[in-house]
């Protein structure tokens, strides 16, 4: 991968895995990072088929994982206190902010955080 860093939200990755190929170019042109929360969300769905699990794991192998560091934890606390996000969303957004990587998401709530670099994705 080349280009810029990008942190896709869980919802955007699910769109891609379900066949939204408009994301293919975006993903190919960027270095992808995923929060450990996104990994947990993707892999913990109890009704995943073996094929879906393999597809998710193959996708995640193309990404760099962001673990929960002290700086991400503190930023997530700050975001959650100020904007009232659920803990997983606060951690994902904080990961993006600490990594200085835009968050690609379909969740409009993230745009409330003006200090974050959020790219809203309109799913076709």
TL;DR?
With 124 residues, the protein is α/β, with parallel strands linked by helices. It has one domain (4-115): 5'-nuclease (Rossmann fold, 3-Layer(aba) Sandwich), CATH 3.40.50.1010. The protein has helices at 10-17, 22-28, 36-43, 50-61, 70-83, 87-99; strands spanning 4-8, 30-35, 64-66, 103-105, 118-120.
**Order of the strands making up the biggest sheet:** 3-2-1-4-5
- Structural class by secondary-structure content: alpha/beta
Q: What is the CA–CA distance across the termini?
A: 25 Å
CATH-assigned homologous superfamily: 5'-nuclease
Q: What would you note in describing this structure?
A:
It is a single chain. It is globular and about 40 Å long. The longest helix has 14 residues, at 70-83. It has a single domain (4-115), classed as 5'-nuclease (Rossmann fold, 3-Layer(aba) Sandwich). The protein has helices spanning 10-17, 22-28, 36-43, 50-61, 70-83, 87-99, and strands spanning 4-8, 30-35, 64-66, 103-105, 118-120. The model has no long low-confidence stretch (mean pLDDT 94). It is an alpha/beta fold and 124 residues long. It has a five-stranded parallel β-sheet with strand order 3-2-1-4-5.
């Amino acid at each position: 991968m080349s280009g810029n860093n990008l942190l896709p939200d869980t919802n955007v990755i699910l769109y891609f895995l379900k066949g939204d190929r408009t994301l293919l170019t975006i993903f190919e042109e960027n270095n992808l990072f995923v929060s450990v929360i996104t990994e947990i969300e993707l892999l913990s769905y109890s009704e995943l088929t073996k094929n879906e699990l393999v597809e998710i794991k193959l996708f995640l192998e193309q990404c760099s994982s962001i673990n929960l560091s002290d700086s991400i934890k503190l930023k997530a606390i700050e975001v959650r206190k100020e904007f009232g996000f659920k803990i997983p969303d606060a951690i994902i957004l904080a990961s993006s902010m600490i990594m200085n990587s835009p968050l690609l998401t379909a969740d409009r709530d993230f745009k409330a955080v003006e200090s974050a670099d959020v790219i809203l994705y309109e799913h076709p």
